[in-house]
Amino acid sequence: MRMTFIRTSAVAMALAIGLHAGGGTALAQEIGIPECDRFITSYEVCVTTKVPATHRVTFSQQVAQLRTTWRSLAQDPQTRQQLEAICRTQGEQMRRGLEPFGCAF
């Protein structure tokens, strides 16, 4: 229940400030792998709440691209099995980039 509330709040917040990827809202698109979805939700909350507006576009574009890639990998049965480890590794790299902004997740 708490994660649903957090995810819903993150979506509402991002919509309010106008984060979009492509033609639709990227936040509404889950990967389908819990590790990946948790990372993306935490990343987006950090970007929308702690990263200065002057840097948000860059970080938002990065996560939109990552979401697209991960969704593609999740749809392929051959790569889906490895996706949790991929999300963990790539997520850790991206997480380090947010540390200067006070993000800890």
What is the number of beta strands? 0
Shape: elongated
Distance between the termini: 19 Å
The secondary structure category is mainly alpha
The helix-strand sequence is: HHHHH
What can be said about the biggest beta sheet?
none
Give the tally of structural domains: 1
- Global mean pLDDT: 78
Description:
There is one protein chain. By secondary structure, this protein is an all-alpha fold. It has one domain. 71% of the residues lie in helices and 0% in strands. The protein has 5 helices and no strands. It is elongated, with a radius of gyration of 13 Å. The N terminus is likely disordered.
Short description:
It contains 5 helices and no strands. By secondary structure, it is mostly helical. Keywords: Signal.
Topology, element by element:
Elements: H1 2-17, H2 34-49, H3 53-75, H4 77-80, H5 83-98
Helix pairs in contact: 1-2, 2-3, 2-5
Question: What descriptive keywords fit this protein?
Answer:
105 residues, 0% strand, mainly alpha, signal, Lysozyme inhibitor LprI N-terminal domain-containing protein
